[in-house]
Amino acid sequence: MPEARWHPKTARDRLILAVDTPNVAEARAVIADTRGAVGVYKIGLELIYAPGGLELAGELVRTGERVFLDAKLLDIDNTVAGAVRSAVALGADLLTLHAYPKAMAAAVAARGEARTALLAVTVLTSLDDEDLAAAGYRGTVAERVAERAAQAKAAGIDGIVCSPKEVAAVRAVVGPDMLLVTPGVRPAGAAVGDQKRVATPGEAIRDGADMLVVGRPIVGAPDRRAAADAVVAEIAAALG
C-alpha cells in the first residue's frame, strides 16, 4: 500500500513559509520565531546550498515539522531519479521539479509508493510573456502553464506550482484532486520585489489555491509570528 501523502486541512496548514536565508543560523531564528504559526517550512536553493542546510531540513522532519524541499529538479532522467530518492530518504513532505515530461516521468518512477508529494513548477512567478520570448519560448505564460499542468497530470505528479494569476485556469485543467501551490503571494501593502504575477492570500485561496508560499513579508517582518498569524487569518477568512 502506498504511504499517505499529506494534504492541508486547516488554514495554518496552508501557509508555507519560505525560509530564504543565506545561512542556517538565520534560518533557525526564523523557525524559532514562527514555529507553530505556519504549516510547512520551505527550504529552497539558497539554504540547500548553504553549509548545514539539508541537515536542518532533516532536523525539522525529525522534530515533526512539515518540510517542503524546493529543489526545482531538472536534469537527465538518472540524476532526477537519484535526487528524488535522496529527498524521499530525507523525509521531505513536498519536493519540486520543473515540469518537463521526461523529468516528471523519472521522478514519479523513482518516488514509487513513498509519501513525498511531487510538485511540478510550471513557469516561475518572476517571469512574464516578454521573459519567455527572450528565452526562446513561443506563446504566452498562460499557454505554457496550461500545457505543463496537463503534462504533469498525465505523468502522475501530485501537484502544481503556479502563480496566483493562473490558479483558476490550472484548476480547470487538472481537476479537483491535485494540490495547487502558489508562490508570489503578497499581503496587501507588501512590496512585490522581483515577482511579476502576484496576488493577496485571500485572492489566491478564493481562486482555488490549496497552499500559499510566503517568504519576505514574514521573514522580514519586525514581528514574524504576528505576520504569519495575519496571513493565516486571511486564509481562514477566504475559506469561509
From TrEMBL:
Specify the domain of life of the species encoding this protein.
Answer: Bacteria
The top EC class is lyase
Q: In which pathway does it act?
A: Pyrimidine metabolism; UMP biosynthesis via de novo pathway; UMP from orotate: step 2/2
Signal peptide limits: none
HAMAP family, alphabetized: OMPdecase_type1_B
Q: How does it assemble?
A: Homodimer.
Q: What does this protein do?
A: Catalyzes the decarboxylation of orotidine 5'-monophosphate (OMP) to uridine 5'-monophosphate (UMP).
What this protein is called in its record is Orotidine 5'-phosphate decarboxylase
Which species is this UniProt entry from? Answer: Pseudoxanthobacter soli DSM 19599
State the gene name recorded for this protein. pyrF
